[in-house]
Amino acid sequence: MARLKIAVLLKDKTPGFWVLAEKGAQEAAQALDVELIVKAPPTVLDVSAQSRLLAALAEAKPDVLVIAPINPEALAGALGELAKSGLKIVTIDTQLPEGIAQVFVGADQAVLGDAAAKIFLSLAQDGEETALLRNNSLDRTVLAREEKLREAVKARPGLILHNDIFASSEKDSEDERAVLLLAKYPKTSVVFASATRGTMATIRAIRAKGLVGKVRVVGFGTYLPAEAAKAFEDGILYGWVAQEPKDLGAKAVRSAVALAQGQSVAPVVRPDYQLVTRDNFRSSEVQTLLNP
């Protein structure tokens, strides 16, 4: 009997979230003895590359396609045709228009955004200046987190929120943009950084500008890098939504295999994450995030 073939199209090849998601997918594929073909554009900013890679993966005739769409609408036509041809589709991280995929594997961004926003609001006093270091204008999952923060701040009209600077609108621009944010808004007391690279860049900028103890950060990341753990120790980082992309990749492949085998699969599958705070960052549960 031929081995099942699972095609996976991710958002980028940048070290971090998607590289770890691929690792989780590869580990699950090995355990289940299925063939895995993985492709991704160089960066999440390269939307057109996903269309070309999708066409290449379709040529491979997979049993199931797993896809993390950068721009769902741009791919909806091609994916709709593949679905009509009988290809089973699992979407991860960002949902596709209804009726295309059988399963969505991804975090509830509203829940993650609300959790981070609550910590952010607990740190800010009315009348203070705060800032949102945005990620880019393309990634739907991160845009959803940012919108949750803006909604939360609207309920606190006494707060000032600066949110006009993007950390990752250009490749490898995060450190420069984090420094720009702190220079442009020197009275900022709390920063909400909506993605991993922006969060880490903000931590570095605070150290470089001698603002430790003056500017506090709430951010999102992948597991818990040593640099983030040190930022908790030093009173820079106060909240960190630790996503677990290996679990995302593994659950996507397991769902794909179950679909191919005709098993019942939940339409929505949630990957693991942990909310790390100043109160729990030394706990044994959080310490497991240090070496994913």
Order of helices and strands: EHEHEHEEHEHEHEHEHEHEEH
Characterize the overall form: elongated
CATH class of the largest domain: Alpha Beta
What structural class should be given to the helix and strand makeup? alpha/beta
Termini Cα gap: 34 Å
Radius of gyration: 20 Å
- What is the beta-strand fraction? 15-25%
Largest sheet: 6 strands, parallel
The CATH architecture of the largest domain can be named as 3-Layer(aba) Sandwich
Overall pLDDT confidence: 94
State the helicity in percent bands. 40-55%
How many domains comprise the coordinates? 2
With helices defined by DSSP (H or I, 4 residues minimum), what is the helix count? Answer: 10
User: CATH homologous superfamily name of the largest domain?
Assistant: Response regulator
Low-confidence stretches: none
Say how many strands there are.
12
Sheet with the most strands: spatial strand order: 2-1-3-4-5-11
Secondary structure layout:
Elements lengths: L4 E5 L7 H16 L2 E5 L7 H13 L4 E4 L4 H13 L3 E5 L10 E3 L3 H15 L5 E6 L5 H15 L5 E7 L7 H11 L3 E6 L2 H13 L7 E7 L3 H8 L3 E7 L1 H16 L7 E2 L3 E5 L6 H4 L5
Please describe what this structure looks like.
The protein has 2 domains: 5-106 and 245-271, Rossmann fold, CATH 3.40.50.2300; 109-243 and 277-290, Rossmann fold (3-Layer(aba) Sandwich), CATH 3.40.50.2300. β8 (188-193), α7 and β9 (216-222) form a beta-alpha-beta unit. It is 42% helix and 21% strand. The relative contact order is 0.15. It has helices at residues 17-32, 47-59, 72-84, 109-123, 140-154, 174-184, 196-208, 226-233, 245-260, 284-287, and strands at 5-9, 35-39, 64-67, 88-92, 103-105, 129-134, 160-166, 188-193, 216-222, 237-243, 268-269, 273-277. It is built from 10 helices and 12 strands. With 292 residues, the protein is of the alpha/beta class. The strands form 2 sheets. The chain has a 6-stranded parallel β-sheet with strand order 2-1-3-4-5-11, sandwiched between helices. Strands 7-6-8-9-10-12 form a 6-stranded mixed β-sheet, with helices on both faces. The longest helix has 16 residues, at 17-32. The protein is elongated and about 60 Å long.
